[in-house]
Design brief:
The complex is a heterodimer of chains A (91) and B (195). Chain A contains no helices and 6 strands. With 91 residues, chain A is mainly beta. In chain A, a hairpin with an 8-residue loop joins β3 (39-50) and β4. Chain B has one domain (4-190).
Amino acid sequence: MTRCSALPVGLRGSTVKKMPTTARELRPGDVVTFTIGLMHMRAKVIEDRGHLGIGGRQIVRVELLDDPYDDPPSRFEVAAAEVEMEQPAAK
Amino acid sequence: MPSQSLIRWQRDARAELDDIADAHAALGGSGHSRRVATVQINHAYAVLLSSQFQRFCRDLHSEASEQLCAAVPAWAGPILRARLAEARKLDTGNPNPGNIGSDFRRLGFDLWPLMRARSARTDGRKNRLEQLNRWRNAIAHQDFSDAAGLDLGSGRTDLWLSDVRAWRAACDGLAETLDGVVDDALLRLAGRPPW
């Protein structure tokens, strides 16, 4: 698994500046995993929302995969720093 | 200090809108072919304006959501972020006053009364925004049958460049007011300036 930003999970504070990332930024088509509450989720990135997060963190819009409850699937936003890359988008 | 969303609106969106305004100014020819081209460019300008304003509103909503997420315990941030953006109307719908008010209410404040209190010009601008979105729908669906809804004054239903310019000025004003209202609301909610 590759973390998708150099900024650690749970980083807080408006004075934090964007740091250089070691991995590439997320882009549409990437499949990622993350935890919300007690749930581990798998989703596809459907939109790069840009650096709208605290300190310029990247935010992406995702669509849940293997979602047993929603038709259509749930779509929402996550911070790139809080997800793990499972499968990069095909070039 | 403005939000990143307002900076993007005032820099990137302005540049793209200026491009299409320049295309209008560069139109050559005369007679029927020029009139047809003018109409098409005016329609494209209106649709682009509405979509750029939609982007601004979505961006500001996301940016404000991030500020709220930063003010809660780390474990709660991802839950809050997901819920604030899930089924957000501005992700799929026009940036009409109803959709904007509905989405921003999720953040814990009623936007339009605060907008009115901040700027006496809000109601006039809001009416122009509603008119812009009626035109966006008409153009996108090529359905101009709602003559009353598309009335640009004295029964006129052909779109002029001056109409789009007026809508653009209204969106500029609304963007600045919206940015200020969200800034104030987040300061009151989270106890610190958001940006």
